[in-house]
C-alpha cells in the first residue's frame, strides 16, 4: 500500500506570501528594524527604548504571521482541538457547547465577548492581579496559583451544576494556556501582551468551533 503523502495544509497563497515574508524576516528586517524605529522617533520627538522596540517589533511580526497564515492556523488549531477531545473524551468540554449555543443565538455579541471582553477581564484579574501580586513573593507560586485558578474558573460551575466533580479533569486543558499567558505577561512587562495573545487564541478557537 502506498504511503500517504505528507502535507503541511498550507495553501499556495500562504506558501508564496510566507516565503517572501520569511526572506524579508531573515535577511532584511534585522538590518532595517533599527533604522525604521529611528525614522519613527523623529515625528514622535521621543526615544523608543530597546525593550519597547522589541515588543513593537514582535507585535508587528505576530500580526503579519496571523494575516498571512490564517487558514493554516485555523486548520492546525482545529486539529489540535480534535486531539484534545480524544485525550479528554471522558468528559465533553461544556464551554465549547455553551459557546456554540451562544453563537447560534447571538453570533456578533458572542464573538465580541469571547475575542475582546473576556480576554481583557480575565487577563487583568488572573495575570495582572493574581500573578502580579504573588510574583512579589514567589514567581513559582505566581505561575502555579494563577494557572490553577484560571483553569478552575473555566470548569467548576459545570461540575457543580451536575454534581460530578470528575469534570475537574478538564482543568488540564486550561493549564498550558494559563502558563503561556502568564509567561507572556511576565517576560514582556506589559499586560497587553497576554491580552492580545489570549484574544488571538480565543479567536482561533472560535473559528474552529464555527468552522
Give a written overview of the molecule:
This protein is 82% helix and 0% strand. It has eight helices and no strands. The radius of gyration is 20 Å and the shape is globular. It starts with 11 loop residues before the first helix and ends with a helix.
SSE diagram, text form:
Layout: H1 12-44, H2 50-68, H3 70-87, H4 94-105, H5 107-135, H6 139-162, H7 172-188, H8 191-210
Q: For this entry, what is the oligomeric state of its chains?
A: single chain
Number of separate strands: 0
Helix content: over 70%
Radius of gyration: 20 Å
From the helix content, strand content and strand pairing, which structural class follows? mainly alpha
Q: Count the helices. How many?
A: 8
- The backbone outline, from C-alpha atoms, is globular
- Percent strand: under 5%
Mean pLDDT: 80
Write a concise synopsis of the structure shown:
With 211 residues, this protein is mostly helical.
Which key features would you list for this structure?
globular, mainly alpha, 8 helices, 211 residues, disordered N terminus
Amino acid at each position: 500500500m502506498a504511503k500517504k503523502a505528507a502535507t503541511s495544509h498550507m495553501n499556495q497563497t500562504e506558501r508564496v506570501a510566507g516565503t517572501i515574508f520569511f526572506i524579508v524576516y531573515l535577511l532584511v528586517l534585522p538590518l532595517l528594524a533599527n533604522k525604521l524605529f529611528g525614522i519613527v522617533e523623529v515625528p514622535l520627538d521621543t526615544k523608543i527604548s530597546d525593550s519597547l522596540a522589541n515588543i513593537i517589533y514582535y507585535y508587528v511580526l505576530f500580526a503579519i504571521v496571523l494575516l498571512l497564515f490564517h487558514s493554516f492556523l485555523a486548520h492546525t488549531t482545529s486539529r489540535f482541538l480534535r486531539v484534545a477531545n480524544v485525550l479528554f473524551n471522558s468528559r465533553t468540554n461544556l464551554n465549547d457547547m455553551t459557546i456554540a449555543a451562544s453563537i447560534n443565538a447571538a453570533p456578533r455579541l458572542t464573538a465580541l465577548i469571547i475575542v475582546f471582553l473576556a480576554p481583557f477581564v480575565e487577563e487583568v484579574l488572573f495575570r495582572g492581579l493574581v500573578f502580579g501580586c504573588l510574583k512579589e513573593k514567589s514567581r513559582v507560586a505566581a505561575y502555579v496559583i494563577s494557572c490553577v485558578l484560571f483553569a478552575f474558573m473555566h470548569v467548576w460551575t459545570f461540575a457543580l451544576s451536575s454534581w460530578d466533580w470528575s469534570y475537574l479533569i478538564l482543568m488540564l486543558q486550561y493549564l498550558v494556556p494559563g502558563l503561556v499567558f502568564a509567561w507572556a505577561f511576565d517576560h514582556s512587562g506589559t499586560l497587553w501582551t497576554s491580552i492580545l495573545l489570549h484574544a488571538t487564541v480565543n479567536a482561533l478557537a472560535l473559528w474552529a468551533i464555527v468552522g
